[in-house]
Amino acid sequence: MKFSSVALASAAMGFAQATPLAERAQITDADVLNYALTLEHLEAAFYQEGLNNYTHADFQKAGMQDPFYANLKETASDEQQHVQFLTKALKAAGASPVEACTYNFPSTDVKSFLALGSILEGVGVSAYLGAAASIMDKTYLTAAGSILTVEARHSAYLRAALGEAPAAQAFDNPLDFDEVYTLASLFIASCPESNGKLPVKAFPALTMPSMAPVMTGSKVDLMVAGDMMNTSDIYAAFITVTGPVWATLESTGAGEYTVVVPEGVAGQSYVVLTKGNKQATDDNIVAGPAIVEVGMPNGPMGMGSKCGQSGSQASSMSMMPSMSMPMPSASKTGMPSMSSGSMTSSSASASATPAFNGASGNRASVVAGLVGAVACAAAFLQ
């Protein structure tokens, strides 16, 4: 999967012009849980669509041998249970839970489906991590943390199955509400009018003409949607849990830039453009985030040198098919609302989930979003 920068830019322009946005108010626990429910609806719908579109045999043909398919179905079940839990909690607290939207997922085959799934799981981890500080009630903080750890397991499992390091660095990267919404909104076609408006905003999209995995110290190209960058003093910030890692940014004109990947970031990372280089917050972010996969593929999990390094990696990088990002609809009235209300304690029982115990396959890059070296994986499994 190679995301189209032109499609992404067009999507962001249409979204920014058409989406009704509520003014950012004091974030309540109900707001955070409805925000989480919005993301869980998206993930649950994504897995349901993929399992409807692709069969067990399709996954095996793509190099994903048993028990991968069974584990993927458990992942889909987890997302459904997250939806049910958050819905029940919001109702118990007297808040109105948001309903599912209509989505546009640009996967065209098993490989692109799994690659996009890995990206969404990574964004989900960053979303829960970023929202944790806004949850006041300890009961709901624990519940959100419980979901976060499961999302992290999903992410690690898909990354390992697709050839990426399961845990590429020691700390995950948090994303704020607006940053997550900027990414998630590209997959939302429309929402029920009863959901109201989200108290969030989408920043102009930040895209990369080439989205292959990159290494520390390498230079990547960035492009901002439309003619939105008529500002000076623009900087690049890679988001980390300890604060932004500032990177060298050069303007090439017309909203196009190059940036050198700094030390201190790895795996699925996020870069934003900011006005000034003192902070990277909603007040001064002017575009992004863009998703950047930092680090070379490891090869399929458990394959060692059979598919790895030099020739095999180069081959997998050249085998990536293409896929464009979805384009949001012209009208987004009825985006999910963040209902306010005081939260009360509630409980829900979780069913046991079978252990994830291995998968085969290879993805050249989470960011580029495609499985590479499938032939090598298939040969190893024979």
UniProtKB/TrEMBL annotation:
* Record keyword Protein biosynthesis present: no
| Bias-annotated ranges (Low complexity) | 308-355
Q: Which CDD domains match?
A: Ferritin_like
Q: Where is this region: Disordered?
A: 304-355
Matching SUPFAM superfamilies? Ferritin-like (SSF47240)
Q: Which UniProt keywords apply?
A: Signal
Q: Which residues form the signal peptide?
A: 1-18
- Highest taxon in the source lineage: Eukaryota
Q: Keyword Signal, does the record have it?
A: yes
Q: What is this protein called?
A: Protein rds1
